[in-house]
Amino acid sequence: MGTTTRDNHIRVRFAPSPTGSLHVGGVRTALFNWLFARGRGGVFILRIEDTDRKRSQEELGDEIIEELRWLGLDWDEGPIFQSRRFNLYRNHALNLLREGKAYRSEPDGAGGTAVILKVMPADITFRDLVYGPITVSGNELKDIVLLKSDGSAAYNFACVVDDHEMGITHVIRGEDHIPNTPKQLILYQALGWTPPSFAHLPLILGEDKSPLSKRHGSTSLRAFREGGFLPGALRNYLALLGWSPGGDRELLTSSELVEQFSLKKVIRRSAVFDYQKLLWMNGQYIRKSSPEELVTRLQPLLADTEWGTVPRERLKSIVSLLGHRLKSLKDFTAQAGYFIDREIIYDPAAVSKYWTGEGVGGILTEVKKEIASVEPFTEKGLEKALRGLMAQRGIKGGDLIHPLRVAITGQKDSPGIFEILLLLGRERVLSRLEKALAYIDRIQK
Known about the structure:
Elements: E1 11-14, H1 24-38, E2 43-48, H2 58-71, E3 77-81, H3 86-98, E4 102-104, E5 115-117, E6 124-128, E7 132-136, E8 144-147, H4 155-165, E9 170-174, H5 180-191, E10 197-201, E11 204-205, H6 221-226, H7 231-239, H8 254-260, E12 271-272, H9 275-288, H10 291-302, H11 312-322, H12 332-335, H13 348-354, H14 360-373, H15 379-393, H16 397-409, H17 417-424, H18 426-443
Parallel strand pairs: 1-2, 2-3, 9-10, 11-12
Antiparallel strand pairs: 4-5, 5-8, 6-7
Helix pairs in contact: 4-5, 7-9, 10-11, 14-15, 14-16, 14-18, 15-17, 16-18
């Protein structure tokens, strides 16, 4: 992965909450933390912030872990679950209570009391590694809840305790967390701890320039995985959302991203999520991938379809033929449908263009005879026989190949016709030609 400066003192974390699927903004945050750590020989920690007892769901935590693994963002420590660390938070909160820095609230309806930190009004200034100096007026700051009345830790308090206990040196997160930073700095001061450095990442916007949300379509990592995107393409695209290595290059390997990533190059303005650009980039990655790798990625997507029982080697052959035409692995079933034993649906435009001319039926009848008798039934054998037929009849290649393509695929465009004939097999090709001839006979009467 190239030479990196070793700095084992660099420790960063990605800390999602299992209250929903992992979305683009969170994924980019995870990626930037991972790139920052990997480029400096540091430590990347995965922490699941599941202190919200009402909204956190264990299965969503499992999904986040699985999706990050799929994306290739490996972690050095974790996953660490905050829900298993309540005693740690409680002990620190009680220490602040004993020191007179915190107080208990009035009991709630269930008799529970919250523990709250007293905050003295004072302006807070910190230097953000992306935005520079940020000052928040003390008039905007209120007392900070440490423990809720149900005994669970409040977000900001648990976050500070964990970042300190885990030795986090840099907190890299979305700019929506900027309002939390002054509160957390106050907590660090109250606890007598040195705070980490903070870097906040600009928001990701939809193409209408509003914050990216569900109204812009599904933007969860799971949806991209199920939508046939490759992990490498997604890593590459998300790395360029709000960061630039300089120059005009857009396709970078993970090694290049690791070597070149720097917080100094994070762009302060919000990035716009361009789905078509991602789709283009994914197509580029598909073209560079081996058929073996593509089949491995493809099979889970096909498991519950009619393709689920197709042997791996046959899939590999079809992928080898079609791979360069795919922008997403989800395109495979539409592009390769004619390789499955089912009724061929003829594209009306292809029929109109290639099956209405005089003599088409006669040409395909002779093609059928050639294919029935050609030996050996190989790509070279088929090409020799059919090109011989073209020469014998004195016709151009397109006069034979285009009608034949419609007959066996139903489409007007496809990969090489001789490769398709070979993959379909003699019996299936002859059956389709027979049906095509009957169809042509009906439309030309």
